[in-house]
Amino acid sequence: MSEQLVLSTIQGKVGILTLNRPKVLNALNNDIMLALSNELLALEKNENVHVIVLTGSEKAFAAGADISAMQKWSYMDVYKSDYIGGFWETMKTSIRKPVIAAVSGYALGGGCELAMMCDLIYAAENAKFGQPEIKLGTIPGLGGTQRLTRAVGKAKAMDLVLTGRFMDAQEAESAGLVARILPNENFLDEVIKIADGMANFSSPVLMMAKQCVNAALETTLEQGLAYERRVFHATFALEDQKEGMSAFVEKRAPNFKNM
Ligand code: CAA
Predict the structure, then answer these.
(1) Between 142 and which of 17, 83, 84, 120 could a Cys-Cys bridge form, CB atoms 3.0 to 4.6 Å apart?
(2) Coarse DSSP helix, strand, coil percentages of the chain, rounded to the nearest 5 percent
(3) Do the beta carbons of residue 83 and residue 62 sit within 8 Å?
(4) Which GO BP annotation is one of this protein's (predicted)?
(5) CATH number of 6-200
(6) How far apart are the C-alpha atoms of 208 and 101, rounded to whole Å?
(7) DSSP assignment, residue 215?
């Protein structure tokens, strides 16, 4: 029986996807990206799941695109493949629930790019980020020159992309790539605990909040502010907004119905 490339489990309202090619440090190929796409879509459709966590192993979130597979590719092979390019279309248009990258160990090349496609990154103390494609005679091809630059600024992005060096969790956090660093011990459990906290809020409101923060990267400030205002108004059409504010005033815990 062939190995399952992406493991999917659900804990409470949190869906957990685990990249599972441990022998090659979760190197990304067409098959694993297709499996990841399918599992993400399944969790998106599952109404009981409010937040998704994407993770790898303790040693590697993902050490990049599969170099052995790419080694012999021609221009037309790589042009036709477009495997993570296609994956991004799925993330962008179909996955509205928040996706957290839980990065332990290496997140390099396509692995760092995959983490950056998620809505936020939590890193274990042992995490290492980098875009080492320059060492292979190529450049990042899945957003590394674009998302990394937006996350950490031009100076550090240039440094990482042109030298191929790795950045540790501390540096990644102070540069703005990583939202929080958590201890190596029980790392995934701690991320799931945070995800569970989010997942107990209203699911439609989580989706709206994610959409608005992401809009900040695609719009002018004026357009972004106008968009946020409209979505803020829209929350007042939800039962969950009535429940959240009533619960505060009545000094009790809210009971969100996700409506
Ligand atoms: N593709 C294919 N196989 C990989 C891989 C990758 N990206 N990264 C690691 N592996 C394999 C190794 O070949 C090795 O396999 P064998 O046991 O069969 O020899 C196995 O995983 C374990 O790796 P190492 O023995 O190298 O482990 P290490 O602890 O000594 O080093 C590492 C870890 C620093 C991450 C090192 O493996 C490494 O440098 N990997 C490549 C990182 C890289 O260059 N990533 C960018 C890829 S290109 C890309 O991603 C392009 C893009 O933007 C789309």
Answers:
(1) 84
(2) 50, 15, 35
(3) no
(4) fatty acid beta-oxidation
(5) 3.90.226.10
(6) 19
(7) H
| Better-predicted residue by pLDDT, 76 or 9 | 9
Q: What ipTM score was computed for the predicted complex, to two decimals?
A: 0.98
Q: At 84, is the pLDDT very low, low, confident or very high (cuts 50, 70, 90)?
A: low
Amino acid at 7: L
Amino acid identity of 173? Answer: E
For residue 101, the model assigns a pLDDT of: 98
Stated length of the chain: 259
CATH number assigned to the domain covering 203-250:
1.10.12.10
Rounded distance from Cα 204 to ligand 1 centre (Å): 39
> For residue 1, is pLDDT > 60?
no
Nearest CA owner, ligand 1 atom 30 = 25
Domain layout of the chain by residue ranges: 6-200, 203-250
pTM: 0.97
Average pLDDT over all residues of the chain? 96
Atom number in ligand 1 closest to CA 25 = 21
Query: H helices of the chain, where?
Result: 30-45, 67-70, 75-81, 83-94, 110-117, 147-152, 154-163, 169-175, 187-199, 203-215, 221-235, 239-249
Q: Which of 24, 33, 77, 128 to mutate to test the pocket of ligand 1 (most atoms within 8 A of CB)?
A: 24
Token pair 């020159």: residue? 145
Distance CA 124, CA 139 (A): 26
148 Cβ contact list (under 8 Å, min separation 6)? 112, 116, 131, 140, 157, 160, 161, 177
